[in-house]
Design goal:
The complex is a heterodimer of chains A (111) and B (116).
Chain A: E1 4-7, E2 10-14, E3 19-25, E4 32-37, E5 44-49, E6 55-58, E7 61-65, E8 71-76, E9 85-92, E10 99-101, E11 105-110
Parallel strand pairs in A: 2-11
Antiparallel strand pairs in A: 1-3, 3-8, 4-5, 4-9, 6-7, 7-8, 9-10, 9-11
Chain B: E1 4-7, E2 10-13, E3 19-25, E4 30-38, E5 44-51, E6 57-58, E7 67-73, E8 76-81, E9 90-98, E10 106-107, E11 111-115
Parallel strand pairs in B: 2-11
Antiparallel strand pairs in B: 1-3, 3-8, 4-5, 4-9, 5-6, 7-8, 9-10, 9-11
The chains are: A mainly beta (111), B mainly beta (116).
């Protein structure tokens, strides 16, 4: 079945440093979504990427979708303590709205 | 964004009892709802897909007689953990998909189940 791998599992950064998480799918995706889950909370939708090579920005967050639509990345510039949480990518299987979630990257930011 | 309400947020029960978890879409009609299980510091594992008015589709390895899903309306899906055992203790999260936002999933706050 489809697998979505995400690295790294954990990342500690000093406030102000940049952060990147990478997502790789074993199969070509129709689209990819990113979610953020704060400690003790539930996943919250951040963005969806659909087109090959697509790049989207949300303030300090930059999302990319690979040309082959099998990988994606999320880059945060100048992290803040409010960025703390686990970031999940989720690949759309293309049928029935089902998503396959990556393992997540837990971001910890030291003030 | 769309709001999904999940209740209860936390439940503690004795082994052998059944627990029902409700998932409601408050401001949209959820044609499809999903039920996930999440272990501490791990990812979300899809348990089943719930479509209004039809039987749920369970992922491989998930016992359908153990985890009963009912999607009786476009705004309500329920998950019943039958004859719960300590190994069923986990964080259960539902999500809903509206016809407008297509495949974007809106998550409930989750239910932390502890079986003694």
């Amino acid at each position: 079945g489809q697998q979505v791998m995400q690295i790294p599992q954990y990342q500690h950064v000093q406030e102000g440093e940049d952060f990147t998480t990478y997502c790789n799918s074993s199969t070509t995706l129709s689209n990819i979504q990113w979610y953020k889950q704060r400690p003790g909370g539930h996943p919250v939708f951040l963005i969806q990427l659909v087109k090959s090579g697509e790049v989207k920005k949300q303030k300090r967050l930059t999302f990319q979708f690979g040309e082959a639509k099998k990988n994606s990345s999320l880059h945060i510039t100048a992290t803040q303590t409010t960025d703390v949480g686990t970031y999940f990518c989720a690949g759309d299987r293309g049928a029935g709205n089902m998503l396959t979630f990556g393992g997540g990257t837990r971001l910890m930011v030291k003030p | 964004g769309a709001v999904v309400s999940q209740h209860p947020s936390r439940v503690i029960c004795k082994s052998g009892t059944s627990v029902k978890i409700e998932c409601r879409s408050l401001d949209f009609q959820a044609t499809t709802m999903f039920w996930y299980r999440q272990f501490p510091k791990q990812s979300l594992m899809l348990m089943a897909t719930s479509n209004e008015g039809s039987k749920a589709t369970y992922e491989q390895g998930v016992e359908k007689d153990k985890f009963l899903i009912n999607h009786a309306s476009l705004t309500l899906s329920t998950l019943t953990v039958t004859s719960a055992h300590p190994e069923d203790s986990s964080f259960y999260i539902c999500s809903g998909v509206s016809g407008i936002s297509k495949n974007i999933q809106y998550f409930g706050a989750g239910t932390r189940l502890s079986v003694l």
